[in-house]
Design brief:
By secondary structure, the chain is mainly α. Helix content is 83%, strand content 0%. The longest helix is centred in the first third of the chain and has 33 residues, at 9-41. It starts with 8 loop residues before the first helix and ends with a helix.
Length: 136
Amino acid sequence: MSQVSKISIKAILIGLIVDIVGSLTVGTLLGIILGVALASQSKSRADFNTLLAQSVLSPGFLLASLIVGLGFTFLGSFVAARIAKRAALIHSGIVGVSAFILGALFLSKEYPLWYIVASLLLTVPSALLGGIAARK
């Protein structure tokens, strides 16, 4: 059986959906929590906007976002490998490369260089770890 015939498009698509929807959902929740916390500290709308802009680019918030994103890439790749029930590293690798491409296309250039580099460089390894975990 060739490597191409071992690929399950359904597994890959479901894995990507888990990654994207999970990352966006938890990222949105983190943003809401941050917004509520900042609203209680703000004296005016302008003050709130300034605090929000500073906070979403703070190292702590970016690190939390990075961990969440990589965690969902791991989970999405794990799910893809489990659904496929074969060629775990191929499926997880495809999910990882797809997530890398989406990240490269849509990652804001406003983020610090360390965040952009870490996000892109750690995406595929995170996905492959999900595939390794699915094999066990």
